[in-house]
Amino acid sequence: MDSDKKLCLHCGKPIQGRIDKRFCDDYCRNTYNNQQNSASTNFIRNVNHTLKKNRNILESHIPTGEEMGKTTRDKLALEGFNFKFFTHIYQNKKGNQYHFCYDYGYLELEGDWFLIVKGKEK
User: Which domain of life is it from (predicted)?
Assistant: First the structure.
């Protein structure tokens, strides 16, 4: 009968209680499930962190009380801005493409200059 005892999926200890129980306690259940989901969760967490950092950098380049500002590519890069990550692209009627990180965006201008804008709420 002992050979039929189920073992905890996380720690391997024998399980007592319900027949369909898979873990010996909540700690083992939580730890096991966190380990199973860690790879995808870490990727999402890292992307969101980068997007938030980009947004905060863009926000810092708009003077208080204003809706837009200007800066250079070098200044953004020195602050850690990652140009590969943005939430969406907006194209205006003139055909200019703004890359947004949530509610702040940038338009690439000539000579490595960028126009930084705060998006309008819809």
Answer: Bacteria
Phi, psi of 40 (to 5 degrees): -70, -35
Torsions phi, psi of 27, nearest 5? -60, -50
> How many other C-beta atoms are found inside a 10 Å radius of the C-beta of residue 109?
13
Residue 12 tokens read as 């391997």
The structure tokens listed for 90 are: 């907006």
Please spell the DSSP secondary structure of 16-85, one letter per residue: -S-TT---SSHHHHHHHHHHHHHHHHHHHHHHHHHHHHHHHHHHHTS-TT-SEEEEEHHHHHHTT--TT-
pLDDT digits (tens, 9 = 90+) for 40-74: 788 899 999 999 999 999 999 999 989 999 999 99
